[in-house]
Structure formats: structure tokens, C-alpha cells
Amino acid sequence: xxxxxxxxMYAQGLKHDLSKFSPSEFIPSVKYFQGFRSPISKEKQVKxxxxxxLHHKGRNKHHWExxxxxxxxxxxxxxxxxxxxxxxxxxxxxxxxxxxxxKEMYTENEPLNFFVNSREYxxxxxxxxxxxxxxxxxxxxxxxxxxxxxxxxxxxxHKYDRTISF
Length: 166
What we know:
mainly alpha; two-stranded antiparallel ribbon; about 60% helix; globular
């Protein structure tokens, strides 16, 4: 929330992940809590899937999975470009999650490392993946203060756009 505020994203900061307080997400998050990784990962390990995640990703536009659909009559999954405001919130979410799970081992390279090693960028919309990678690389290269100022400028300039040209 506070990092969204630093980027001028006040409404998004206030609304960020409110679905986590619903019973569908809160109960599994408590049950599978470990402190060093997402409870969703543990639920998937135990059950083979996560009801919590299925609920969460369908209600929070800063997750790229929200922007996926299936073409009727086909097995193909289509990944849409994320609007800039949600892509920036996704980047901020990655930074915050890296800080929470890495604790004192956090560096400004962690969000980028996690993104690259997760291979999710191979499934998400290519342009969105390129933009997220660029923004995380910017953080790694320039530090958080400068990166958040840059993200804020992008938000102000493009908050109603689908894409940014770098």
C-alpha cells in the first residue's frame, strides 16, 4: 500500500489485495502460512492446486493471470496486455513480496531474479512481460528511490493507457 502511495497510486494502494480478507483466501493463507514463501505455494504443494489462488487472481487486476482467457472451442490460452496502472501495481507487488519473503537477504535484484527464474514471462503477454522485465531491471540498476520516482512518472503519464513505449 505504502509503495503504491509513493508512486501516486492512492486508490490502488488502498484497494490492493482486499480479497485476501475474504474467507476463501484468508483461511487457506492462515492454514498454509510459512513466512518464507507464499501460502499459495504450500497449498499447491499439498493439494496440487490452490483454491485461494484461483479466487485471488480472478479479483485482482495486478496479476497477469487476471488478463488471460480461452478462445471458445480451443484449448489455447490468450494473454492480454495489462493496462499500465495494473502492470505498475504488479511490479510494486513483486518488490514488496520479495522484501517480505527474502527479509534481510533482500536486494534490489531480487524482484528481477524471481521474475526471470519463475518462467511466467513465457506465458504472459509478450509486451507486458517485456515491460515488467524492463521496470524490474530499472530497479536493479538504479535503486528503489529512483525506480519509484520513475514508476510514478509513468503512472501519471500513462495510467489510462494499455502500453508504454520505452
